[in-house]
Amino acid sequence: MTTHFRSVLSGAQPTLLGGLLLAAVTVGTWLAWLSWNTGYRTDPETGAVSGPYAVWQVAGCVLTLAVVAAAGGWWLSPWLVAPVMAVAFTVPWAVQAASSDGSGLWAVGATLVLMGTAAGSGVVSLVTRLLRLRLIGS
After folding, report:
1. φ and ψ at 50, to 5 degrees?
2. What pTM was estimated for this model as a whole?
3. Most exposed among 77, 81, 83, 112, judged by the fewest C-beta atoms under 10 Å?
4. Cis peptide before 52 (omega within 30 of 0)
5. CB 81 within 8 A of CB 69
6. What residues have CB less than 8 Å from 13, skipping those under 6 apart?
7. 57-110 pLDDT, tens per residue?
8. How many whole angstroms separate alpha carbon 92 and alpha carbon 35?
9. 60, 58, 42: which is closest to 50 by C-alpha?
10. Residue 59 contacts by C-beta under 8 Å, 6 or more apart in sequence?
11. Whole-angstrom distance, CA of residue 137 vs CA of residue 16
12. Is 84 buried (19+), middle (13-18) or exposed (0-12) by CB count in 10 A?
């Protein structure tokens, strides 16, 4: 009985550490790409308002998250990667959005960010896992 229990724990420890590392890198991605630019810009010629993020920031963030999800899918289960990345990215995004939005629409945005991050990281990590299984068989 204790041998089985130790075997279960030895498999859980790398998964826990991997999940914590994955969460930390995901939060770091948000910090690096999106946390520092919160202002809106108004075009003086057209009066159009844009922001708070530039297109290049979002593109860089998405590409970084895709690399993180691929690495996560290589070493961890996609069933772990998708929820960890979705929550780890959405929480800081929502905290920042809620602090600057008086309308309450940040909750809609947070829901969309959560679903998009879960779907994107889930697909990327699953494809990576299937590729790993095909290449090395484990």
Report:
1. -135, 160
2. 0.84
3. 112
4. yes
5. yes
6. none
7. 999 999 999 999 999 999 999 999 999 999 999 999 999 989 888 888 999 999
8. 8
9. 42
10. none
11. 23
12. buried
